[in-house]
């Protein structure tokens, strides 16, 4: 009897346990159904906040690139128009302002626990720095031997180079809107180029003109290659999702490029002529120094924007923003240097804005598709 009672008790307990389990099984889904909308809403809100933060960062990077490149170009033009003629000094100025970026490391410290191999990243920084030196030097020669219109015309080819390098090295997907953007921005720069008369280069020998053309074309291709290699480094070597990685990339590549420029400045003997260049500068010695200092700061501002866009988006997008800034220069040229603003320049600016909006809209569609997936 006892055994039977115990068995019966066990049976009742089992039944009760089964009932409780069943109740739990019923209650859990009900609780999940109640909490799911709140969880999904919280997740959606968090995703929306991150999306807006990303767009603000991209807008800030684009602003730095456009403002920095525009002001640096204007100051570079001012340097040559006032009597400056040192190619190595022009090269040096493009990277020499990097020490100011060390202050940024205090505000954006590295938070990643992953250590990047020191030897490997050092070799990459050295290689990119030397590429950057060669690129800056080729641009300096091109700007000296070519009229600004022809120089800008050839620089527009960097977009075409970048499309190729992005496709090969970064597996960049090329869409119709992207190609529309590239074509419009390139045509805008071509319009600016053919808008000027080519007799401006008559004071330059045919050999130097051809050399300037080839060096500027080479500089455009090298610049595009550098952008793609930087993106490749971020994706496969550094792998840090913070702004300190952007600062370090710019600081150490600029350090190498600056050191190489100093070596070139002394090896070429151009340093001996700098005192005379400063004394003969048309607007005075103080203006000479300020032109070089602020040009250096402007180049660093532009470089931070460029590397930031590579980090946040892609090298192709960074190049699109860089090319978008080129037609803006004539607008400031009208205000600062009293250049003439004709219909061709206005059309070129409108085309560049159209191309810029096309590319941004493509990223908006990609972002919308990702969030809805």
Word description of this protein:
By secondary structure, the protein is mostly helical. It has one domain. 81% of the residues lie in helices and 0% in strands. It has 14 helices and no strands. It has helices at residues 2-81, 87-93, 102-107, 118-145, 148-155, 158-169, 176-194, 206-238, 243-268, 274-279, 285-312, 315-325, 328-336, 343-372. Helix 11 (285-312) packs antiparallel against helix 12 (315-325). Mean pLDDT is 77; it is low at 1-34 and 197-201.
- Could you tell me the mean pLDDT? 77
Strand runs, count? 0
Cα end-to-end separation: 65 Å
Instruction: Give the helix level as a range of percent.
Output: over 70%
Helix count, per DSSP?
14
Poorly predicted runs of 5 or more residues: 1-34, 197-201
| Structural shape | globular
Which strand-content bin applies to the residues?
under 5%
Radius of gyration: 29 Å
**Order of helix and strand elements from N to C terminus:** HHHHHHHHHHHHHH
Tell me the major beta sheet. Answer: none
Helix and strand composition category: mainly alpha
Q: What number of structural domains do the residues give?
A: 1
